[in-house]
Backbone:
């Protein structure tokens, strides 16, 4: 089977990247990820087992999947995650496996994850202020995350990406602090546009902040330049200050979408394949776990139904549609 050409959608985009949500549970309750009263966690029997996930990845690998990202909820709440990562990494054609986490448990599990074969980490962190961090996460502790980031640096994960969702009335005043951090440490701060998933139009529009303000503040700090895109840098436009140890990036899912080059699929914790993060259509895989040909057909069906682009930013975008999964149930 020629894997390189089998996951191509109707618009000619080749897909080699699968994001896997291993749980929808989280130890934090960030406002934009788990909107108040909108999400009830799945019962454990509904979650894919390790064996089912590995089977799906095996089939995906035969179709050209080379990169895996483990997400949640908070993926480190899943028991024996290092063992699952080790099993996935043992699949010969899987070249890279990354983890998106809130960072709270990295100090505890970082070494074990590294030994299991984990290549990279993305850590969500929207504030460097203890009180604001506690507010946005509903009582999380900032120092737990900072210690997790330091552990990741010491273990040699590369690159280490810090995801910062920019919100107008919340953390715009911290942009300079995040940028200065990239000068001191070998990390990649990625500023991300606030996305209207599970939110009302009013909530989103009141908090949306253009990322152009990041460049304006960066110019006041000093000279910065575009940097060569790392193969795993994703959709971010990357920059670095002169003589900085790290970099910063801008991700514009709304104002400058990257749909033309989208190469990713998402597997939900209960076994549905989502061809687009911002689209309701899904393909169930769980019922075909024991039938490789049916799984292949399901992957290809996802390719067929994938839209050319998402509709965020359009006047008719359905903000907060109750049939749309909240972010914690998708995996981002």
Residues:
């Amino acid at each position: 089977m020629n894997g390189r050409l089998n996951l191509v959608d109707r618009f000619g985009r080749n897909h080699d990247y699968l994001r896997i949500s291993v749980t929808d549970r989280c130890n934090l309750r960030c406002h934009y990820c788990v909107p108040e009263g909108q999400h009830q966690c799945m019962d454990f029997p509904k979650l894919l087992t390790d064996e089912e996930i590995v089977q799906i990845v095996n089939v995906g690998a035969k179709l050209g999947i080379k990169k895996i990202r483990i997400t949640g909820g908070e993926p480190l709440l899943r028991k024996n995650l290092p063992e699952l990562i080790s099993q996935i990494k043992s699949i010969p054609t899987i070249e890279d496996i990354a983890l998106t986490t809130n960072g709270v448990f990295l100090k505890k599990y970082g070494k074990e994850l590294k030994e299991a074969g984990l290549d990279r980490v993305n850590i969500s962190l929207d504030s460097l202020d203890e009180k604001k961090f506690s507010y946005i996460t509903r009582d999380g502790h900032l120092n737990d995350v900072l210690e997790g980031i330091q552990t990741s640096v010491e273990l040699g994960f590369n690159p280490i990406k810090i995801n910062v969702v920019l919100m107008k009335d919340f953390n715009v005043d911290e942009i300079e602090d995040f940028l200065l951090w990239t000068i001191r440490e070998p990390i990649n701060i990625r500023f991300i546009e606030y996305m209207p998933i599970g939110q009302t139009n009013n909530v989103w529009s009141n908090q949306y902040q253009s990322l152009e303000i990041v460049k304006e503040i960066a110019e006041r700090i000093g000279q910065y330049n575009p940097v060569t895109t790392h193969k795993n840098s994703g959709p971010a436009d990357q920059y670095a200050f002169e003589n900085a140890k790290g970099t910063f990036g801008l991700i514009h899912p709304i104002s400058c979408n990257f749909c033309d080059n989208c190469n990713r699929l998402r597997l939900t914790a209960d076994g549905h394949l989502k061809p687009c993060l911002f689209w309701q259509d899904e393909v169930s895989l769980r019922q075909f776990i024991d039938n490789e040909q049916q799984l292949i057909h399901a992957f290809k069906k996802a390719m067929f139904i994938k839209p050319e682009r998402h509709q965020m930013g359009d006047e008719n975008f359905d903000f907060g549609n109750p049939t749309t999964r909240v972010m914690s149930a998708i995996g981002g």
About this structure: The CA atoms of residues 267 and 273 lie 5 Å apart. The longest helix spans residues 142-155.
